[in-house]
C-alpha cells in the first residue's frame, strides 16, 4: 500500500527526478483529460504527457483492442521481426497518413523514444551526405543522448553531457534576435561565403514549433525559405515532429500548412496512441541506404504500441478531428489573448500554434508560480523556455469544451491571485 | 488481413530492418518458450528477445496483473511523476533485489532502452569526475546512440555514426590478445606511465559476458582485478548488465559471483518482466549528483512495465529460480561440449556462462547457416561476434526440460546436416 | 648554378608550393622595396613577405648588427635558455613598445611562427578559463596547425585538416552580413540566451584588419564593443596581430586607436625585423599561469632574430615612423579611390587601413589577373579574400615616394590593360 | 649591458620559460661543442640544442657562406617563392641525401618547426586515406600544436591543450609493457578484430628512438614489423625524424639500418645546419596530392637556413662522418656501461642509440640532480622521460675526443658526488 507522501521516491529514486517535484502527488488512475491521485483528488490534465497523450488517457477503443490482444497472448516484444500487429500498423499508417498527403516515406522503427529517432535521423543524414556537420537552431530541443543533445540548445542540459558537444553549428531560429532580423538571410550568408568557417552541413534539424524551447512557432514562410536554402545547397531537412506532430498544432504533421517536404521526419510521443513507447523515423526512399541492423535496439518491436497506434489512426480517417482541433485552438488563443489584456501586470505574450500555446512573462519565476498555483487548484500544466518563462497549455486534443473551460478557469484564477499578491508586495 | 509473405515490410519499412531477414515469417502469438506465426507454425524460442524475455512470453501472472491494471484505467504514461505503480516497483526492487544483496543504489529511470541507461551512466561518470575520457573494452556492445556507440567496438556499427567517435580508449577484454596475455597488466601500464597518452578516465564500462561481442565471458578474477585498478586510480566502474543481467548468467546481477561492487549498473531488456520497454540506472548514493531533469525523456514512466516488472521480481523472492537456472546452464554446457566433441569439423569452442552460451566456429558463415537451418526446423536462434562466428543459445530462463531438449535436438540436427553437406562438398 | 626555369622546383618540391606559381621566377637578391631575380630583372615589392618585411629587405642597420654578431660567434640557437641577445630584446621591447603605451604584458616566445603564437594563446585561454569553446570570426585567418586552423574561416584550408575542426563557434565579423546588420547585437543574443546552444567561450580571437580574409577592416567602435562584450561575460580577448601588427596599419599594435586592451596579443611576421622567424605571445601578467615548459618548441631562441628585432625597434623610438606610415596610407587611399572612380568597369571597392589596403572587384578572376599582369610589369602584389577577389597593396612601411609611385603606375597600367581587354571581349 | 642575474627574464618573460631554469646563466657566445656565458665561464655542450645543433655551434664553413650571403643582400625571407638559395638546397639534398639512398621523396617546406612538419604529415595522411584516426605510440613526442600534441604521450603536455585530444589511438611502443611482451602482435589484434573499437587508421607516426620520451630505442626488427603491419592494412607510415634524424643515431635518417621505407618523413632541428629554423616534410611522390597552398605559413622560405643547410650536407658527401659518429657512439656506450657498473647505487640502465644515449635511474629526482651538478661543473646536459628519469648525452656529432672526455669526466664526477651524498643520507 502506497502513501501519498513521496517518501519512497525521495529515498529510492535518483535526484534526477523532476516532474514529481512540480506535481507532488502520487497518481493512480487517468481517463481522457482527467487524472486522479491515490487520495482520489481529480486533476484536469493540460500537460498530456508533454505531448505523448494527444488522445487523452486510456482511450476506450484503444484500451479494448489492447485488452483483446493481451488476452490472446499476442506477441509483446519482437525486436524487428515481422508481426501481425506491426504489419497492420504499417498498412494503416500508409493508408491513413502517408497516401492521402501524397507522402512517400520508408518507415524506420528506431528504439522507442524521441531521442532515438533523432539519433537515427542524424546518423542517416551524415551517411547519405558524407558530411559530419549539422545545423541546429537556437532553443531547439531534440533529446538527451549525446547525438541529440549536440543539436539541443539548452545550456543546462548541454553541460550534463560532460564532454564538448560537437559537429553542430547553431543558427538563429525565426525571430531569435529580434522580430526584424531576417535569420534566413543571415544563415545563408554563412553558407555562401567560403570564408565563413561554417561548412555545408549534412542536414538542418528543427521543430516547427519549439515546445521545450519556449513555444516558439516559426512562421510558415520562414520554414518554406529554410527548405529552399536546404535544396539550394544540397542539405537534408530533418523535421523533428516528436512534440509538435500527431495533431498537436492542428494537422497530423506540424509542417503540412507550411507546404514543405522534409527529407526525414522524426515521430514519437503520441504516435503510440495511448502513451506507450514508440518512435518512427520517416525517410525519403532514395535516402534509405541503411545497411541491415546498422541502427538497432531491443525495443523497436513494441507490439502493444503497434496495437494502440493502429487504432489511434482512426482519428485521422476523416477531417473531423482536424476541425475540432482548429476550433479548440481558436478558443485557447482567445482565452490567452484575453488574459494578456486583462492582466497587464503579466507583461504577457501569447505564443505558439494549435493546442501548443502559452503565455510568456518576463517576470522572473512568475510562470512557474502560476503553474504551481494551478496544480494546487487541480490543473496539471507545465512551463517551458530557457528561463521557464512560459506557461503552456497542452491539453489532450480530444478534450471537450467542459474540460477546456474548467482548465481556463483554474488558470485565470491562478494568474489573478498571483498578480494580486505581487501587487500587494509592489505597493 | 496479413499474409505471410513479408511484402508489406519490404515495401514500407526501411532497409535497416534486420531480424526479419534472419527469421522470415510473420509472428502472431507467443507463450512461454514458444512462438507461432500467422500460419500457425510453432517455433521454439532460443532467442528470448535478445535477452529481453528472460521470463518467457506472456507469463500468466504478469499478464493477469496487467489486464487488471488496464481494466481499472491505471495510468499508462507518467514521465517521472509519481504513480502508485512506480512506487510499488521501487519498493519491491529494493526489498527483493537490493537489500538481500546488501546493495545500496539510487534508482534512476532513464528513457526505456538499453542505450539510454548507458548514456546516462556515462554522463554521470563524467560529471562526477570532471574527466571526459572513458575506457571501454574490445567487442563491448552498449548501444546505438552516439554516446553508447562511442564505447561499442563493432566497426560496422561505428561507421554508422557518420562522425568520429571520441572520448574513449578501447582496452583489451579478458583473453582478447591470447589466453596468456594478462590484459589487466597491460591496461595498468597505460594508466601508470605518464607518457602513455592515455589519461586517467572518468570510468571503465564493461559487460561481464559480452553478448553481441561473441559470448565472451570474463573470468571472475579478471573482473575483480579490473575493479581493483579502478579503485586504485579513482575510476568509476560501470557494469552494463543490460543483456547479462536479470538472471541470464545465473544470478540477478551477472557480477554477483565476481564479488565486485560497481559504482553504476545499467539494466534494461528483461527488467520490465514481459518485454515492455524499461531501463534502470543504479547509482551509488554518493555519486547521485544529478540536477533535477538533467537527463530526461518522455517514456521514463512506462507504468505497464512497472506492473509487469514488479510481478517479475517475485521470481527472485527465494533462491529456487537461481537454482533452476544453474541446472539448465549445466545441461546446456554438457550439450554444447558434446556437440563440439561429436562434430570436430566445426572446430568449435564452447563460450559463455549460464543461459548465455554458444559455440564459435572459425568456418566462415557456418554459424549463420546453422542458425538458418535451425529456423527452418522450428527454432529461433541468433548469431553473435564480430564475424557472426558464434551461434548462441538464449532460451527463456523459465524454459522447461522438454523445451530445452526440443531445442537441442533441432540444433544438433542443423549442425549434423550442415557438417554433412560441407563434407560432401569437401570430397 | 641555377637556371631561371623553375624545373628544379617542379621536380623536387611538393605540389603544395604556391607563391612560386604566382611569381614564377627565381629570386636572388633584395634591398629595401626591391627584389631581383637571377636574370637581374628588378621588381617593386608590394607584397613585403605577406607582412613579414615591414621594414623592407636587408635594412642596413639590422644587417650590420647581424654581421657583427655572427662574426663574434654569437649564440645562434638557444631554445629558451637565457642569452645576451634575448635579454637585450626583452629590455628594448619593454622600453620602446610596452612602457610608452602603458601596457603590461609578460612576453612568451612560442615556436617562431604565427600559427605557434596563436596555438599558445588558445591553449592558455582554455587553461585560464577552464572552458573549451572559442569564438572566432568569419574570414579570420590564424594559421595551419590544427588549433589555429580551427579558428580559421577559409573552407579550402579547413578541408585540408582531414578531421572535423572543433571547439569553435564562428560569429559574423563587422559588416559580414551587410553594412546595416549589427553583428555585435547578434553575437550577444547568443551569449545571453541560455537556449542558444553557444556556451560562454574561453576567448574570442580576431584580427582588427583581416588580411587573408579580404582586407576587411573592423570599425574601431565595433572592436570596442567586442571588448565590452568580452568583459561582460568574462571572456578573454585575443588579438591576432601577426599580420596587422608591427606598424602595418599605422601604429605598432593595430588596435591602439580602437582604445582596447586585449588579454593576449599574438605577434610574428615583422617582429623579427628583417624576415627571420620569430613570434611573441603577450600575456596579461595575471593570466600567465603556464607551468614551465607547458608549451615549448625547439626554435624559440632564434638569436639572429633577437638581434635584428632589437635593432628594428629603433624605428619606434620617436613618432616619426608612425607619421610617415600615415602619410603613405593617405596616398594609397587616394590612389585606390582614384582607380575605382576612373575604372568603373572594376566595380571596385576600396578596403583596409594603413599600408594594408586593396580593391575588391566582384568580376570573377579579375583581381588575380591584375596581380599577374602587374608581375609581368615588375610588381609583386598578392590577392586575398575567400574568392581571391581583392588585390592588396602591402609595400614595406619604409618605402619611399618614388617606390610608391612606381608601384602605383604599374598597378594602374595593369588595371587599364585588363579593363580594356575585357571591354574588347565584351563588344 | 646585461648582468648575469636573470632578473630581466623573471620580470619580463612568461613563466612558461623552462631551460633557463635548468641552465641558469646568460649565454653569450658559442663555438663547436663549447658555450660561454657573459662572465666568460666555459661550458661543454652535451645538449646540442636538443638535437638542433648536431654540427656544433657556428661551424666555420657555414658561417663563412652565411656572411657572404648576407653581405650580398641575398634574399632573407621568401615564403615559398623560388630563390637561388632554395634551389641550391633542393639540388644538394637530392644529390647528397636522397639519390645515394635510392629514396624518392617530394620535399615540402612547412613552417620552420618540428611541430609544423608533423602537422603537415598528419594532414596529408588523412587527406590521402580519407580516414581521421592516427595511431601514435606511448611516450612519443611530436610537438605542441594541437595536431602534434594529439599524438604526443606526455600527460602534462597533453593537459596543456585545454581540450580533449582526439582522432588518435596510442599503442604500446617496443618494450613498453615489458621486454617479453610483443607489442606488434598486440597492435595487430586490434586491427584485425572488427570488434576492437580501433578503426584502421590513416597513419602510424613514430620516432625510431624516442628522445623526450626517455631515450627509448625501438629494435630494428620491431620497426620492420611495424612497417609490415602498415603495408598489410594500407596504413601510411610516418617517421618523425626531427630529433633522431640528421645523423644523431649514426646515419642521416635514423631508420636506414632498419631497412624500412616510410611514406612520410618529418625533419627539422639540425636540418638547418647551424641552428636556424627549418623543417622539411618528405613525401612519397604518389602521396603528394596537396593542393597549392593547402598547408602554408610565413616562414617557409628561411633562406639563411637554406644557405647553412646546403653547406651542412657536405658532411654527408663521403662516409667518413658516419664512421666518426659510430666511433663516438661506441665510446659513449662504453662510458655509460662503465658508469652503471661502477655505481650500482644508480640502479642504472643504459638506453638509446648513436649519439642519443643516456642512463635511466629509478631513484626519484636523481637524474635531474646529476644534470644540475654537471651544470655547476661546466656541462650542459638534459634529462628526459615521463618522470625525467634519464640523463641524456647529446653532444654535437662533430665533437672531438677531448670534448667527449671532458664531458665524461664531469658526468662521472657528478654521479660520484651525488651517489656519495645519498649514501651519507642513507646511513
UniProtKB/TrEMBL annotation, chains A, B, C, D:
InterPro entries registered for this protein in UniProt: Aminotrans_3 (IPR005814), Aminotrans_3_PPA_site (IPR049704), Dat (IPR004637), Ectoine_EctB (IPR012773), PyrdxlP-dep_Trfase (IPR015424), PyrdxlP-dep_Trfase_major (IPR015421), PyrdxlP-dep_Trfase_small (IPR015422)
Enzyme class, first EC level, given as a word: transferase
Protein EC: 2.6.1.76
A Pfam family assignment: Aminotran_3
Top-level division of the source organism's lineage: Bacteria
GO terms of molecular function: diaminobutyrate-2-oxoglutarate transaminase activity; diaminobutyrate-pyruvate transaminase activity; pyridoxal phosphate binding
Gene3D superfamilies hit by this protein: Aspartate Aminotransferase, domain 1, Type I PLP-dependent aspartate aminotransferase-like (Major domain)
Keywords noted in UniProt: Aminotransferase, Pyridoxal phosphate, Transferase
One GO term of the biological process aspect: ectoine biosynthetic process
PANTHER family: DIAMINOBUTYRATE--2-OXOGLUTARATE AMINOTRANSFERASE, DIAMINOBUTYRATE--2-OXOGLUTARATE TRANSAMINASE
Name of this chain's protein: Diaminobutyrate--2-oxoglutarate transaminase
Lineage: Bacteria, Bacillati, Bacillota, Bacilli, Bacillales
